[in-house]
């Protein structure tokens, strides 16, 4: 009853308080978007969801658009925390991979070389890998979360939606900022940015970011001591922008990023452990871990980009050319104890080239048209020590998988909005995608005979349309209805133990229907949407074992497709600035995301007689909740600025509630757990609420500021990962309470 009342109160709050303050949230284009008004006291938020700059309320789809200032005031540090300010969004980890979920559509596979079904674009460039997503938000101008399948304009593997991140663009006047903070667990964060003109036609921007922390997890003594999962985030982003002609601009960028966060690769068994495992030296405190081989989840990215913009007589022609090299390494002790039983080492290199060409045409009376094409080429392959699984004392037995995955993809798209009258507009669009995958894989070592050189090739193609109708019922107030489809290309696994497992999964497809309402008034904004999805062939990863003896076993992922799923729900978000200096924001989401008929799923059950796990158990997942799809979630944030000591004092609080949900593993307790538990999903996170708060004073010159912050203020304990294997159930706790101070200078 208390939980129900809490939900009811939060949903009621959405009707009177808001999500993103109009004075702060700004849309994103290729450069920083400045808030502007064409009518008194009404602020514009400019977004690029249709690959052209438009007011947020005029776009017939669900979008969350927040500025860097809103992100900072909510206490959001990285992509994983975006859900705390975006209703209907979850970002979780599965092993070393970071996997977003929008309205219950998410990835259920976490191998290197796999792309999420929520696409990430940074400054217009597609970021394909799951590991590099585990990065902090440094040098951010703004973020847009596009909900629903983006099958036309941002349609590469975007069945769930897309996240568009814009970083700060070079400025025509000198500007800069430097900040340092120190907090719990010896966490040191530094960031700096400077931008300005080099000549009257040439300008630059340079940003650096570093966060180092010992982390909150320790080794279990007396076998080992110290920090079990230290974290390091580092990035450098540089841009040079040149006006090559009065109507022609070029932006050259170089980016470097490092993410090292091993928390998703910790396997210490906690519950339902086998009698043999119970005798092994291991951690028992939930904030302690045990392993005797290196645990790592590390990714480096080197990227060069070139963006060209040519303003012609009929519209703007934009070219995006990018090349990136990503090196990743994942090492983990798969038994999670201090015994010398099993471990895994994975090292990969990924080279990605992408080219996109857009033409936004505005010279046709009554028609806004975007036509474009893209080319994508990716080469992901294992590097020494390859994909190595070892088991036995002193790694006596080893199995190596050398894999090479190549992807080549083309896409052509067109999208137009026809203005049938001053109030009514019709949007129609479509995208044709064609993709080819080739995999080469060979195994060496103890199980070499199980995987001889295997070569496979597969091609996938799909046309995905969209249509929407928008009607302006009053100034800055619109209703809309939309239909769209999305497509996620099929692919191959990159590390399996037999040729029979080197088979492609079928493409995932989704069909979406949505109706919505948006309004932007003098001191508040409000939007709401209802949606219905039919999702088919979502990728799914199941765990299997390869054994040379009853005691020498290693785990491998078996890929497949889930059957149909049905998703529907309601969302609302509202922002208000009732008085100067006070911003109140809120959002809420109700979501029903369930599988259809799925009687032959394979999961990890529980035998209550022995209190141990049962692997590869046939289970019926029909009508079970999709992962990362809580039935209800919501957020409320308040910030207030007041004069103090000649300067200004900012206080900000953000709270977000998440209902119970499945983090990663969809398994049921199963038939050996008794009738009361048999049909229940095992690896669920209970409902929780997180609260972030901060206070910052800025001096009268508005240059120097000092502050203090608290994240997870109430010290709520919840899980980052939750899974199980033959040794027992294991999980990694998420961040406990963090408290820190900061000081900065801007000009």
From TrEMBL:
Please state the protein's primary subcellular location: membrane
User: What residue stretches are annotated with the TonB-dependent receptor plug domain?
Assistant: 56-162
Q: Does the keyword Ion transport apply?
A: yes
In terms of superkingdom, the source organism counts as Bacteria
For this protein, the record's Pfam families field holds: Plug, TonB_dep_Rec_b-barrel
Organism of origin is Sphingobium tyrosinilyticum
Q: Which InterPro entries match?
A: Beta-barrel_TonB (IPR000531), Beta-barrel_TonB_sf (IPR036942), Plug_dom (IPR012910), TonB-dep_rcpt-like (IPR039426)
What protein is this chain from? TonB-dependent receptor
Membrane-related topology note: Multi-pass membrane protein
Q: Which region is the signal sequence?
A: 1-25
Residue span, TonB-dependent receptor-like beta-barrel domain: 247-713
Instruction: Report keywords, A-Z.
Output: Cell outer membrane, Ion transport, Iron, Iron transport, Membrane, Receptor, Signal, TonB box, Transmembrane, Transmembrane beta strand, Transport
Subcellular localization(s) per the UniProt record: Cell outer membrane
Recorded family membership: Belongs to the TonB-dependent receptor family.
User: What is the phylogenetic placement of the source species in the record?
Assistant: Bacteria, Pseudomonadati, Pseudomonadota, Alphaproteobacteria, Sphingomonadales
């Amino acid at each position: 009853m208390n939980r129900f009342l809490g939900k009811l109160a939060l949903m009621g709050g959405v009707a009177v308080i808001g999500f993103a303050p109009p004075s702060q949230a700004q849309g994103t284009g290729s450069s920083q978007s400045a808030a502007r008004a064409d009518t008194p006291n009404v602020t514009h938020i400019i977004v690029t969801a249709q690959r052209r700059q438009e007011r947020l309320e005029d776009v017939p789809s669900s979008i969350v658009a927040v500025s860097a200032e809103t992100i900072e005031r909510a206490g959001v540090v990285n992509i994983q925390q975006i859900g705390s300010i975006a209703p209907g969004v979850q970002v979780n980890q599965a092993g070393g991979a970071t996997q977003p979920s929008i309205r219950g559509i998410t990835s259920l596979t976490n191998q290197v070389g796999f792309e999420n079904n929520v696409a990430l674009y940074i400054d217009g460039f597609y970021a394909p890998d799951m590991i590099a997503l585990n990065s902090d938000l440094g040098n951010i101008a703004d973020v847009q979360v596009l909900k629903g399948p983006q099958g036309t304009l941002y349609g590469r593997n975007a069945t769930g939606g897309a996240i568009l991140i814009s970083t700060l663009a070079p400025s025509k006047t000198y500007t800069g900022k430097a900040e340092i903070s120190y907090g719990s667990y010896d966490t040191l964060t530094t960031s700096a940015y400077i931008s300005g003109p080099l000549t009257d036609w040439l300008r630059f921007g340079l940003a650096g970011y570093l966060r180092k922390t010992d982390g909150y997890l320790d080794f279990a003594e007396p076998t080992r001591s110290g920090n079990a999962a230290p974290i390091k985030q580092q990035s450098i982003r540089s841009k040079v922008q040149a006006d090559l002609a009065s109507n022609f601009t070029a932006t050259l960028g170089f980016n470097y990023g490092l993410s090292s966060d091993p928390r998703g690769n910790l396997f210490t068994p906690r519950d339902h452990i086998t009698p043999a495992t119970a005798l092994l030296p291991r951690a028992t405190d939930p904030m302690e871990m045990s392993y005797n081989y290196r645990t790592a989840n590390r990714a480096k990215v080197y990227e060069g980009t070139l963006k060209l913009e040519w303003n012609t007589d009929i519209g703007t022609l934009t070219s995006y050319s990018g090349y990136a090299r990503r090196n990743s390494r994942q090492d983990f002790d798969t038994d999670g104890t201090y015994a010398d039983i099993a471990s895994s080492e994975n090292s990969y290199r990924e080279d990605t080239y992408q080219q996109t060409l857009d033409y936004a045409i505005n010279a046709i009376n009554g028609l806004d048209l975007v036509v474009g094409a893209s080319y994508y080429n990716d080469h992901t392959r294992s590097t020494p020590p390859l994909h190595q699984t070892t088991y036995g004392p002193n790694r006596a037995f080893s199995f190596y998988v050398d894999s090479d995955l190549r992807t080549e993809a083309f896409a052509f798209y067109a999208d137009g909005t026809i203005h049938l009258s001053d109030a009514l507009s019709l949007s129609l669009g479509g995208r044709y995608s064609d993709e080819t995958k080739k995999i080469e894989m060979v195994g060496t070592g103890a199980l070499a005979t199980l995987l001889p050189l295997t070569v496979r090739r597969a091609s996938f193609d799909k046309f995905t349309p969209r249509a929407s109708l928008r009607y302006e019922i009053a100034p800055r107030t619109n209703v809309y209805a939309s239909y769209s489809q999305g497509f996620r290309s099929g692919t191959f696994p990159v590390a399996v133990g037999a040729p029979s497992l080197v088979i492609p999964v079928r493409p995932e497809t989704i069909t979406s229907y949505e109706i919505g309402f948006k309004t932007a008034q003098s001191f508040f904004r409000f939007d709401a949407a209802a949606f219905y999805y039919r999702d088919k062939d979502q990728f799914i990863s199941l765990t299997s074992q390869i054994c040379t003896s009853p005691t020498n076993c290693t785990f491998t992922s078996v890929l497949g497709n889930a059957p149909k799923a049905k998703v529907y729900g309601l969302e609302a978000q509202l922002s208000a600035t009732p008085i100067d200096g006070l911003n109140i924001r809120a959002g809420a989401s109700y979501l029903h995301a369930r599988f259809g008929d799925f009687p032959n799923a394979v999961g990890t059950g529980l035998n209550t007689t022995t209190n141990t796990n049962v692997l590869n158990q046939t289970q019926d997942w029909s009508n079970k909740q999709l992962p990362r799809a809580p039935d209800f979630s919501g957020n409320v944030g308040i910030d207030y600025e007041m004069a103090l000591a000649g300067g200004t004092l900012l206080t900000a609080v953000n709270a977000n509630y998440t209902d119970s949900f499945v983090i990663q593993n969809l398994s049921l307790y199963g038939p050996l757990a008794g009738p009361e538990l048999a049909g229940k999903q095992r690896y669920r996170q209970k409902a929780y609420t997180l609260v972030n708060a901060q206070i910052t004073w800025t001096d009268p010159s508005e240059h120097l500021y000092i502050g203090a912050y608290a994240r997870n203020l109430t010290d709520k304990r919840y899980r980052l990962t939750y899974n199980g294997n033959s040794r027992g159930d294991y999980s990694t706790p998420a961040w406990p309470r963090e408290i820190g101070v900061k000081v900065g200078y801007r000009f």
